Amino acid sequence: MNENILGIIAGILTSVSMIPQLIKVIKEKNVEDISLLMLLVLISGLSLWVWYGFIKDELPIIISNSFAVLVNISLLICYIIYNKKG
């Protein structure tokens, strides 16, 4: 398998992996089962992947991880809005 195709498929899968969670949170307006620490660590890691993509000039890494950062920031915003503990 061509390594570019493998990278693109991996990027797509990881980028969309949190969309079902985001949809569920938006529908139910419930974030009780979401870990704030996990979200912060994930957004940090994905942001570092974007930075790495820029350093290596790898557009698939930049695009897929930028999309994943946006999805997870959206989830973080939902966490802030719907968190009933705070």
Overview of this structure, please?
- With 86 residues, the chain is an all-alpha fold.
- It contains 4 helices and no strands.
- The chain is 80% helix and 0% strand.
- The chain is elongated.
- The N and C termini lie far apart (49 Å).
- The mean pLDDT is 92.
- InterPro entries: SemiSWEET (IPR047662), SWEET_rpt (IPR004316).
- The chain crosses the membrane at residues 6-23, 35-55, 61-82.
- This is MtN3 and saliva related transmembrane protein.
- Keywords: Membrane, Transmembrane, Transmembrane helix.
End-to-end separation in angstroms reads: 49 Å
Beta percentage is under 5%
Spans of at least 5 consecutive residues whose pLDDT stays below 50 are: none
Gross geometry: elongated
Mean pLDDT across all amino acids: 92
- Series of secondary-structure elements, N-terminal to C-terminal: HHHH
Helix content: over 70%
Q: Over the alpha carbons, how many angstroms does the gyration radius reach?
A: 14 Å
Helical stretch count?
4
Helix and strand composition category = mainly alpha
What's the count of strands?
0
Main beta-sheet strand count, sense and barrel state: none
Keywords: Membrane, Transmembrane, Transmembrane helix
Transmembrane segments: 6-23, 35-55, 61-82
Protein name: MtN3 and saliva related transmembrane protein
Organism: Chryseobacterium rhizosphaerae
